[in-house]
Amino acid sequence: MIALVDYGLGNIQAFVNVYNRLGIPVTVAKTAHELESASKLILPGVGAFDHAMELLKASGIRQILDHLVLSKKVPILGICVGMQILANTSDEGTLSGLGWIPGRVRSFTSVPETAELPLPHMGWNDIHVTGGHKLFEGLEEDARFYFLHSYFFESLHQYSVIATASYGTDFCCAVQSDNVYGVQFHPEKSHHFGTGLLKNFAEL
Amino acid sequence: MLRPRIIPCLLVQNNGLVKTVNFKSPKYVGDPINAVKIFNEKESDELIVLDINATANNGEPNYKMITKLAAECRMPLCYGGGVRTAAQAKKIIGLGVEKVAISAAAVENPQLVTQISEEVGRQSVVVVLDVKKRLLSKDYDIYTHNAKKNTKRSLFEMVTRFEELGAGEIVINSIDNDGQMKGYDIELARRVKQIAHIPITILGGAGSLKDVGNLVHNCGIIGAAAGSLFVFKGVYNAVLINYPKQSEKDELIRTNYPF
């Protein structure tokens, strides 16, 4: 079953609602015991990078997550800050990320073309799917998602980037490395486009 | 490309959905949860829900109602009404709301914006400013308490100040245009858009999609919020929740802001 990782951040209920409507069973997991049998994981997140890492540490589930993701290769989807903490470091904080996808989280203010635009990057934006990953099946044309962020994931390896969006500059809005996935936008708040993506993830 | 946002703004009073004219004579127009369900089906860009009782009555935000709204809402939700502390804002974000709006409390104590921003991240902090044009001046006064109290603060000064203090978005609500359905105050929108470095949303006055188009034409990427437009329909202003289809929105944006 898909487990929504509840470490105190993100709109867990919104994911529950989407999957309920799809008729796909999900569970909300807070403890190692509850996570143990998960076949897929969703890691939501909002707010600041360090805050997310602190909460994850305090939740006492880091070890089981490492085991599930790195040893058992359970697919995991990080959302928004849940995607950013997949990286090694962030300009926003001083703590180390999970480091599951090599990369660094950068501030839009460090990009001259974007620094001139209103920040945060807020609203509905198109995405450009690179490489046609199954996560975006049926969403290659005309798909748009809701974004709300001031930092973005800079992947060390170009091949980990599976979709980009444009705001002053092209930036990575979806990453994948092996069984680890991340999206910067909010599929749980992106109407049928987001529902499509969450369905695809469930069917991977 | 990033698109302008077209946002229904719902006013809540005593748990019922209401619509005002110039911030007065609230008319009961239905049940808020039911309205959210309809906007889900219509796939609106975002939703703003403002509880107009909460501040006026000095009450706590109605967490029960907010929980229900957040659970039902399939688009990003901004809640405002009665938020006076960072702890309240954090609690509301924890209920699954994307953005929390502060108004009177922020005008009275601008540092609150910083406190909330540090607690929930600036992307989730919205300052809503109710404004009225000053006589013989290009500036606007900020009002609070449902437009009953003139704080005599200058809108343009406060926009910059709130931005520096950590606001992630500012919603400008025109008291003069509220419920008039005669179009947005374009000059106001242009001037705020010029000075701001954060997303801006304009509320008050939209009577047709043409008005929304006109705002986009003049200001580009902006939030176009409306109450009456999405709640009333027809010459007799019958209550009927409505919202443009995706193809209508795309067309409206394409004609007014080509990309």
Number of distinct helices of chain B: 10
State the name of the first-level CATH class of chain B.
Answer: Alpha Beta
Helical stretch tally of chain A: 7
Oligomer classification: heterodimer
The CATH class of chain A is: Alpha Beta
Mean pLDDT of chain B, rounded to whole units?
Answer: 93
**What name is given to the CATH topology of chain B?**
TIM Barrel
- DSSP summary, beta strand count of chain A: 13
Give the helix/strand layout:
The complex is a heterodimer of chains A (204) and B (259).
Chain A: E1 2-5, H1 12-22, E2 26-29, H2 32-35, E3 40-43, H3 49-58, H4 62-71, E4 76-79, H5 81-84, E5 89-90, E6 103-107, H6 112-115, E7 121-126, E8 128-129, E9 144-149, E10 151-155, E11 161-167, E12 169-177, E13 180-183, H7 191-203
Parallel strand pairs in A: 1-2, 1-3, 3-4, 4-13, 5-6
Antiparallel strand pairs in A: 6-10, 7-9, 8-11, 11-12, 12-13
Chain B: E1 5-13, E2 16-21, E3 24-30, H1 32-41, E4 47-51, H2 63-72, E5 77-80, H3 86-94, E6 99-102, H4 104-108, H5 111-120, E7 125-133, E8 140-144, E9 149-154, H6 155-165, E10 169-174, H7 186-195, E11 200-203, H8 209-219, E12 223-226, H9 228-231, E13 232-233, E14 238-239, H10 246-256
Parallel strand pairs in B: 1-4, 1-12, 4-5, 5-6, 6-7, 7-10, 10-11, 11-12
Antiparallel strand pairs in B: 1-2, 2-3, 7-8, 8-9, 13-14
Helix pairs in contact in B: 3-5, 7-8, 8-10
